[in-house]
Amino acid sequence: MVETEKKRGVWLTIWLVIMLIANFFIALTYLVLNKTIASLYPNVGLWIWYIYGLVALANFVFVILLFMWKKWPFFAFCGTTIIAFIMNLAIGLGIFAAISGLIGPVILYFSMKSRWNLFE
User: Fold this and answer.
1) ∠ Cα 2 113 61 (to 5°)
2) Residue 1 lies in a domain
3) Are 105 and 62 in contact (CB under 8 A)?
4) pTM (2 decimals)?
5) Could you write out the DSSP letters of every residue in 73-111?
């Protein structure tokens, strides 16, 4: 059986690269500069910033797997987004700020939609 070449498309590639870079720097920020961030939120425990960093690190790995045409990382990314949404509300971010974090998976969904059948 001859397998046709998978084409990711420009927009999906751009969005995945943006996600890859953003999650790398977000993870780095939360894991390395967590005390600086914690000083801005004195009522929030330091441990929560480590969790944010681990979530971003997981998202970084999920994006790499999306580049490898795996479908399940999309659902995992949605799961980490829900976790981050709950954490954002728990630390006292406003509802609109928390909801803005849900935009990433929506953009990813619409970017992947036309190529969904190419993912394994």
Assistant:
1) 85
2) no
3) no
4) 0.91
5) HHHHHHHHHHHHHHHHHHTT--HHHHHHTTHHHHHHHHH
pLDDT digits (tens, 9 = 90+) for 59-108: 999 999 999 999 999 999 999 999 999 999 999 999 999 999 999 999 99
- The domain tally of the chain equals 1
Q: Residue 4 domain-assigned?
A: no
Q: What is the DSSP letter of 71?
A: S
d(CA 52, CA 57) in angstroms, rounded, equals: 9
Instruction: Give the closest residue to 110 by CA, choosing from 9, 24, 26.
Output: 9
Amino acid at 40: L
